[in-house]
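Sanity check

After download, print the first record. It should look like this:
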Amino acid sequence: MLYLQIVNHTEKKTNMKPTTKKNGNGSSREEILLDMARQNEMDGYEKMDLYNQETLDKLAFHYKEIIKLLGENPEREGILKTPERVGKAMQFLTHGYDLNPSEILKSAKFKEDYKQMVIVKDIEVYSMCEHHMLPFFGKAHVAYIPNGYIVGLSKIPRVVDAFARRLQVQERLTTQIKESIQNTLNPLGVAVVIEAQHMCMSMRGIQKQNSVSTTSDFTGAFLSEKTRAEFIHLIGSNLH
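Expected structure tokens:
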């Protein structure tokens, strides 16, 4: 299975395996992938195959050993290709290490005399707890108040993904998103709130399936109680 993901083609060489397999329209899989890349090109970014074959081989070897240690037969039909699948999945789930959040923001940074709150809320978050390597997932709400520059709205979720697709803790993830936006755009203020469920609490340990963890971080104008209260009110409102 080939994963497609946004990477900086000026900084990373990816491993796109050539193939001549044809689809029903006579186009090869490689041609389809390249056509998708061309259609999805952005400033300095394009869609490419993510996994690195050398890394994949090493991961697959070790996952096969783990399967053995767990008491399962790695040669069984249903598990035979599991080490490779997990290796590819892990590279996808941690591809944020190869992304530069600052460059993502700079790729769509525009001068604009707008100094009111800009909010992108309910951004889906999928990350991996660095303590147990189990998923945590939920929503991020991000706001900033421009100071001469705005950014393309889609870049905010991309920055969230760039930090989330790593081994993380929710607290650091919240702060990294805030600092990246603040340092790159220099706005009058940034606010980030993340609400997430952690599988390390639901599937193991305390086994509390309905618990939700909330973290927040603020800079500049959002340190004012009035501005922060407006942000909290807006992210909790159903305006659409």
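If your output differs, re-run the checksum step. Summary of this record's structure: Residues 1-25 have pLDDT under 50 and may be disordered.
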